[in-house]
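Suppose you are handed a protein chain with no further information: no name, no annotation, nothing but its sequence. What can you learn? This example shows the usual starting point.
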Amino acid sequence: MNAAGAPAGRARIACDPVINCSGDYSEGTMDLFTAGMLGFSAIVLFGLYWFGAYHVLPIFAVAMILFFGNSFVANYFEKEGPGITVGGRTFEHGSYSGKELRAWLADPNKKEAVSRYVFPVLIPIDILFIVLFAVAVALTSLALAPELKIPPDWYLALLLLPLCFAVADLSEDSLIIHALTSPDAATDKYVAVMKAVTGLKFVTFSLAAGQAGLMVAASFVARCLR
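A reasonable first move is to predict its three-dimensional structure. Written in structure tokens, the prediction is:
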């Protein structure tokens, strides 16, 4: 999520001259999101250790390493000059039309940006994160369910949000990869679908992460009240 020239770890959205970035998140918003994810990670990791869910700890830890590490990987490929906006993850944050996207992809200077965006940012790092995070949330929920006296009949319901997140995020990655590798497919309608799926991804991610965080917090409260 870093912009060209930004120090590693800073969350600034890169704007390409062809792409209208009026819809980008501000640096402060992304810094707040990063801080929130750090706090969330610390709470869940501590909760998993405290409640003895040791089998989930490495899965969740690797998922978070991939989450934060992906911005550093993207920033590694970021270069000053036209055409390289990998660190900005532009297509997941920017505001642009199908026409603008096709114009961006038609620019020969963008070939490296497209290549780096598809690999390694989306494949394999983002896909690995999606799978591991969804599995980690599901296992966290199942591991803490007995602490909260949740009936086994409800266990399947605990898998719904992480599954929805995985489907939404994998769908988003597939749509982005298809648009980047098949520019003619990037119509206004296609871009609208991409943006809708991106919105769904953010919603399901927030709900899945909230489920894990809430179950850890509720388990602490339940343990204290016994």
